[in-house]
């Protein structure tokens, strides 16, 4: 019997939060029963593309969704679903733009059309009117509503959908065994990074204005004044990286900040950290924050991040409007010991083995 093929709709399969979450599920599901294929919206190869192909998945490329190409994009969507009747389940992860994909899928007779919200804010830029338009198109085009948190669900679907119990909260589950604290891994990873006994502050996330890297560096500057041997690890890539590199250089912190780029060894890097710093302007349920808790790290985050993200008691929320010095004071008063949080995360539903089985059953029942 051939596996049921599920069409996952994303922007590009790079090492971002939702993409990593999808790959966690994809690696764990029984691929003799369920197979993932991907509709992406970039021409360039994503970091996970080769692994997807190795696991038996297919990748379909669509143009970038942007003002000015809607008419062409809508036609390409209609053509795609007319030529691919094999997809009975379409699972869209592109937030408000999922409405366009699911509208085309609905016209083609696809019965299970999942809109999945992964963020809790739009942000403000020139695309905002078009994003608001896309959100109004959502209406009844999905047949199912998923979100990574209640905040993310309310932002995309409205509170009425939550109150009517129509939203499924799919946890951003991870492989807990991989992140469990290991002293040997910590020592080895620090050695590779040429770090000895320094206090290490870490951050994992793409370089984007929503992640608030400018403020993050200011907080570290205040910490570094009092702990001159402290280090900052910045993991990720993005369009603001060059700006942040210049800021670090101008502050004279270039020898204390390591820009590590995109990495495959996040599990090991988190073992090397002493604290996870995450002052984002907005998030859904950030995978990196779940991973940091799984590694037993104290986490200091902005108060704009959902309280649902505190799964272990290790997350400390600070006012995003407070000064970097206030943040530094709070951080330096914390204990930096790693804590075993595996049982708490299992209890809260973040074990990938359990959650992948649950998602597989959901797909099979829908088909």
Automatic annotation (TrEMBL):
<feature type="domain" description="Glycosyl transferase family 1">
    <location>
        <begin position="188"/>
        <end position="350"/>
    </location>
</feature>
<keyword id="KW-0808">Transferase</keyword>
<comment type="similarity">
    <text>Belongs to the glycosyltransferase group 1 family. Glycosyltransferase 4 subfamily.</text>
</comment>
<dbReference type="Pfam" id="PF13439">
    <property type="entry name" value="Glyco_transf_4"/>
</dbReference>
<dbReference type="InterPro" id="IPR028098">
    <property type="entry name" value="Glyco_trans_4-like_N"/>
</dbReference>
<protein>
    <submittedName>
        <fullName>Glycosyltransferase family 1 protein</fullName>
    </submittedName>
</protein>
<dbReference type="Pfam" id="PF00534">
    <property type="entry name" value="Glycos_transf_1"/>
</dbReference>
<dbReference type="GO" id="GO:0016757">
    <property type="term" value="F:glycosyltransferase activity"/>
</dbReference>
<feature type="domain" description="Glycosyltransferase subfamily 4-like N-terminal">
    <location>
        <begin position="16"/>
        <end position="177"/>
    </location>
</feature>
<dbReference type="InterPro" id="IPR050194">
    <property type="entry name" value="Glycosyltransferase_grp1"/>
</dbReference>
<dbReference type="InterPro" id="IPR001296">
    <property type="entry name" value="Glyco_trans_1"/>
</dbReference>
């Amino acid at each position: 019997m051939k596996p049921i093929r599920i069409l996952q709709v994303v922007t590009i399969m790079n090492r971002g939060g939702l993409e990593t979450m999808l790959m966690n599920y994809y690696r764990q599901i029984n691929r003799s029963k369920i197979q993932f294929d991907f509709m992406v919206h970039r021409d360039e190869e994503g970091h996970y593309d080769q692994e997807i192909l190795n696991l038996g998945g297919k990748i379909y490329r669509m143009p970038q969704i942007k003002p000015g190409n809607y008419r062409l994009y809508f036609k390409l969507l209609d053509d795609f679903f007319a030529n691919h009747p094999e997809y009975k389940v379409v699972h869209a992860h592109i937030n408000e733009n999922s409405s366009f994909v699911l509208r085309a899928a609905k016209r083609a007779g696809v019965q299970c059309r999942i809109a999945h919200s992964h963020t809790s804010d739009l942000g403000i830029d020139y695309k905002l009117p078009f994003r608001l338009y896309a959100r109004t198109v959502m209406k009844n085009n999905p047949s199912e509503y998923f979100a990574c948190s209640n905040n993310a669900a309310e932002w995309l679907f409205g509170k009425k959908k939550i109150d009517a119990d129509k939203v499924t909260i799919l946890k951003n589950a991870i492989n807990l065994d991989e992140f469990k604290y290991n002293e040997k891994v910590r020592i080895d990873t620090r050695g590779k990074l040429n770090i000895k006994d320094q206090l290490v502050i870490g951050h994992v996330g793409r370089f984007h204005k929503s992640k608030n890297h400018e403020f993050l560096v200011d907080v570290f500057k205040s910490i570094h004044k009092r702990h001159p041997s402290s280090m900052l690890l910045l993991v990720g890539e993005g369009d603001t990286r060059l700006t942040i590199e210049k800021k670090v250089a101008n502050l004279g912190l270039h020898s204390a900040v390591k820009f590590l780029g995109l990495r495959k060894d996040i599990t090991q890097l988190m073992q090397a950290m002493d604290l996870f710093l995450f002052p984002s302007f907005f998030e859904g349920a950030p995978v990196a924050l779940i991973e940091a808790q799984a590694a037993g790290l104290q986490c200091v985050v902005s108060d704009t991040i959902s309280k649902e993200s505190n799964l272990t008691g290790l997350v400390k929320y600070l006012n995003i409007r407070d000064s970097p010095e206030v943040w530094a004071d709070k951080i330096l008063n914390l204990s930096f010991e790693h804590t075993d949080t595996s049982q708490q995360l299992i209890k809260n539903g973040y074990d990938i083995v359990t959650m992948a089985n649950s998602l597989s059953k959901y797909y099979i029942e829908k088909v």
